Amino acid sequence: MSDGSTGDDEPPILSVRDLRTRIRTDDGWLHAVDGVSFDVGRGETVCLVGESGSGKSVTCESLTGLVPRPPAEVSADAVEFDGEPIAGRSEAELRSVRGSRIAHVFQNPQSALDPVYTVGRQVTEPIRIHEDVSRSAARDRAVDLLRRVGIPRADERLDGYPHEFSGGMQQRIAIAIALAGDPDLLIADEPTTAVDVTVQARLLDLFRSIVGDGTSALLVTHDLRVVAAAADRVLVMYGGTIVERGPVEAVFDAPSHPYTQALFDSYGGTGGPSIADRSARGDLPTDGCRFRAECPHAVDECAGGAQPAFHAVDASAAHAASCVHYGPNGDPAPIRENATSPTDGRDPGEAECGSTGPPAGPTANAEGERR
């Protein structure tokens, strides 16, 4: 499964093949996304994980035409949503998809919410844009959405302004706006970054309930706790490419690409190699393995040509790494011997908030959730 598909017989809600985004800068072209392929199944949560600058956000924004062009140039062999191509569509055509069938939750709710409009206006606007309903019907729907995402006294707070809500509640409001069009796919970019761990746990519980209702999710994060708590499958990105993919349990139990191991080591404070600065600067190799300059296992075969092919790292082809050492002529033993898990052998969903494992279920937050 070299394309990162789900393996299910049912067609995926989102299918991406060889997505590439390059951005013109003063120093030349930055290859922000370089040959990314993956699927998101129906009712599935897929997490894109990696350090800042690895290409996660640009990948998501490229799918629905949110990357400014120019200075960016976006191409792909295929980007299909619900079986229909969306790559190359005009801005007007993409607007008919964005908000109604594909919704975005952006990283910073303080900047995503307009401070001069009430929360009610911002929640009802996408409802009235995409559906032929009256103002009163849209308002009733907005109240229901705010209740669904956990805003107390939703009918009263609908007339409040964003600054009157805590950071956790602002993020919930941003999620309510995204859900207003009843989307089939929710793309959430670092939705838990700006909140504390207890609010984070409540937001993750909300995401699980949304996916449980049938919505698919593409979740962007650099937090391994979020990955373990929310994902069905994980895609590990470095330098604009996917270097490892698989079911979340498999990747956490046996991180197999040297970059994934470095990411896990740095997360657990075990002194792994520094991996963020080089990826963010954009001065990575544009051929061969992007991680080879930092990799303790790099060999001559890692340089030149295309990014190494994906090879299965266990009995099922679902868990695979883009690494020559897993190929027919390679020896993955030295890499696998160094593998460590951020959950110390536990099931990823069992660790508590604030530990090296992922957050558990929702807990109360007196200040963040009661304001």
From TrEMBL:
E.C. no: 7.2.2.11
PROSITE patterns given in the database record: ABC_TRANSPORTER_1, ABC_TRANSPORTER_2
The protein's enzyme class: translocase
Source domain of life: Archaea
Keyword Cytoplasm: no
One term of GO molecular function: ABC-type nickel transporter activity
Entry GO terms, CC: plasma membrane
CDD domains the record matches: ABC_NikE_OppD_transporters (cd03257)
Transmembrane regions: none
Enzymatic reactions: Ni(2+)(out) + ATP + H2O = Ni(2+)(in) + ADP + phosphate + H(+)
All copies of domain ABC transporter, residue ranges: 14-264
The entry's keywords: ATP-binding, Cell membrane, Ion transport, Membrane, Nucleotide-binding, Translocase, Transport
Subcellular location: Cell membrane
Region (Disordered) residue spans: 329-371
Membrane topology: Peripheral membrane protein
SUPFAM superfamilies: P-loop containing nucleoside triphosphate hydrolases
Binding partners and assembly: The complex is composed of two ATP-binding proteins (NikD and NikE), two transmembrane proteins (NikB and NikC) and a solute-binding protein (NikA).
Annotated protein name in UniProt: Nickel import system ATP-binding protein NikD
Origin species: Halorubrum miltondacostae
